[in-house]
Amino acid sequence: MISLPYGRQAAARLAARTGARLVETDLPVGLRGTSAWLASVRTAAGLKGPLPPPLARLERATARELAPALAALAHSNIVFAGDPYLYSAVRGFALELGMRVPAAFISSFSRPLSAPGPAAKLVMFAPAVAEAAKALAAFGRYDRPHLGVCDSLAITEGFAGSAPVVELGFPSYAHHCLNDEPFMGYAGARSLAGRLLNAVQSAGTMTARGSGQL
């Protein structure tokens, strides 16, 4: 039985009742996150060695599809606002894309965060809106966010400041999908990278218009 972060207690109870082996995993977001998730599930199932050829080919194909976006995404800053599990996943994928997450507003009480890479410059748990806005406004040019990755409540409260937003997490009231649009797995890596790219490009276009360059 695979337990994602949001269902730990329920999964533990079900495993105890059924005798199923419990495998606790992180969210499979991004290339490394997905590959690590697959590896942990394979290990729990008693499978050894690298990913089987079809999965390895899918991983390489996804990396090739992401490559054209890297130059545009590199060195962009994200302000994250949402739950702690999604923060860890988004931060890991951002690092793969050459992006930074210097600020995070976590919608929970204080807890340890298992996020890859160097610690974010600003991490606040369940902050007051005015307190978060003040902290974000104090950022210098190097750390100032280019876009936000936030749930609907965080967007409504203004936790992304004036940056364009990729709406992700629960709840999500404004972003709708008429076709499949995952954010987990290899397919999700392509989809989420595309959304981040569109947001960064949109911000650049609006800046150029404001400065009279277009």
Keywords summarizing the entry:
Rossmann fold; disordered C terminus; five-stranded parallel β-sheet; single chain; 7 strands; alpha/beta; about 210 residues; globular; two-stranded parallel ribbon
Description:
- The protein is an alpha/beta fold.
- The chain has helices at 8-18, 30-44, 53-73, 84-96, 129-137, 152-157, 185-210; strands at residues 2-3, 23-24, 77-82, 100-106, 122-125, 147-150, 165-167.
- It folds into two domains: 2-64, no CATH class; 71-210, Rossmann fold (3-Layer(aba) Sandwich).
- Helices cover 47% and strands 13% of the residues.
- The strands form two sheets. The chain has a five-stranded parallel β-sheet with strand order 5-4-3-6-7, with helices on both faces. Strands 1-2 form a two-stranded parallel sheet.
- α4 (84-96) links the parallel β3 and β4 (100-106).
- The longest helix is centred in the C-terminal third of the chain and has 26 residues, at 185-210.
- The protein is globular and about 50 Å long.
Question: Short description, anyone?
Answer:
With 214 residues, this protein is of the alpha/beta class. The chain has seven helices and seven strands.
CATH class of the largest domain: Alpha Beta
Distance between the termini: 54 Å
Q: What fold name goes in the CATH topology slot of the largest domain?
A: Rossmann fold
Structural class call reads alpha/beta
Write down the overall mean pLDDT: 90
Tell the overall outline: globular
Helix content: 40-55%
Number of strands: 7
User: Number of helical runs?
Assistant: 7
Q: How would you write the strand order of the largest sheet?
A: 5-4-3-6-7
CATH homologous superfamily (4th level) name of the largest domain:
Nitrogenase molybdenum iron protein domain
Largest sheet: 5 strands, parallel
CATH architecture label name of the largest domain: 3-Layer(aba) Sandwich
Oligomer classification: single chain
Question: Which band does the percent of strand residues land in?
Answer: 5-15%
Low-pLDDT parts are 205-214
SSE topology string: EHEHHEHEEHEHEH
